[in-house]
Amino acid sequence: MIHLTVCKPGDAGVWAQALQAALGAGFAVSAWEDGAPPADYAVVWKPSAAFFAQQTQLKALFAAGAGVDGLLALKPPAHIPLIRLEDAGMGVQMAEYVLHALLRWFRRFDRYAEQAARAEWQPLAPERKADWPVGLLGYGALGQPVAQALRALGFPVQAWVRSARPADIPLFAGPDQLPAFLRRSRVLVAMVPLTPETARLLNAERLALLPQGAYLINVARGGLVDEAALLAALDSGHLAGAALDVCTPEPAPPEHPFWKHPKVALTPHISAATLREESIQQISAKLQALLRGEAVSGVVGAGGY
């Protein structure tokens, strides 16, 4: 019997039942409680410190989400493979979010809202999509559906990644090519994981490399951005706007300047919700592959990727 435990505040019982139904006979799945016996595998999201102290026989750990920076901050045992969700329905949601933000600026809906508040009827000249190149800062499982959606509407798309690899869009790779990538991105979409190497990656120096009047969309982590530098770039006019699904800290306190800044649209980390059914299917398939001795994708390395 393979024992799987679920440590996920709020709905661990629901996930445990769904995983049991997906895995079937030969598996015993339960919601973790303090003092529970050791399990072989675990599905976790925001586990307590007691969880790792008590679960000392785990063979692998499945994150119930794509971002694992919060989980890594708890310092799970290094010998236990950590496997994150890949897409599981989140890519399409992120594409929707990015398209909404981009089209609001491209089609001047923000300007038309200002005009409507003044009861002003004034059509604006249309924009050319060729003048709106979109740069994806990160091009993994979630970035690819975003690129596909953007390209389907005719926007030029490029991406920056840590190391060179074949791709279906122009890629810039490594630190040396980051400046050129930023200079060519009128709309920058932050999608990289938050790691010690990417923390405050978008600082004043790099934001200044973006074209005059550029825009920022952040659907990754607030810690990627130097928020004081972002506000300064917006106030100076170098950046024309920002659509932010994340910030530091979260939840954003009432006094956070993003709430009232006229060039910022802030949402409460909703660009890509974890879809239970799709996630259960992916975790179940990967667990069964591991038990067959097969390699699985989504294993997080030492750098947080």
Overview of the molecule:
- This protein is of the alpha/beta class.
- The chain has 2 domains: about 110 residues, Rossmann fold; about 180 residues, 3-Layer(aba) Sandwich (Rossmann fold), CATH 3.40.50.720.
- About 30% of the residues lie in helices and about 15% in strands.
- The chain has 10 helices and 12 strands.
- The strands form 2 sheets. A 7-stranded parallel sheet has the order 8-7-6-9-10-11-12. Strands 2-1-3-4-5 form a 5-stranded parallel sheet, covered by helices on one side.
- Strand 3, helix 2 and strand 4 form a beta-alpha-beta unit.
- Helix 4 packs across helix 6.
- The longest helix is centred in the first third of the chain and has 17 residues.
- The protein starts with a strand and ends in a 14-residue tail after the last helix.
- The relative contact order is 0.13.
- The model has no long low-confidence stretch (mean pLDDT about 95).
Task: Give the helix/strand layout.
Layout: E1 2-7, H1 12-23, E2 27-31, E3 41-44, H2 49-54, E4 60-63, H3 69-73, E5 82-83, H4 90-106, H5 109-117, E6 134-137, H6 143-152, E7 157-161, E8 171-173, H7 174-183, E9 187-190, H8 204-207, E10 214-218, H9 227-236, E11 239-244, E12 264-266, H10 276-291
Parallel strand pairs: 1-2, 1-3, 3-4, 4-5, 6-7, 6-9, 7-8, 9-10, 10-11, 11-12
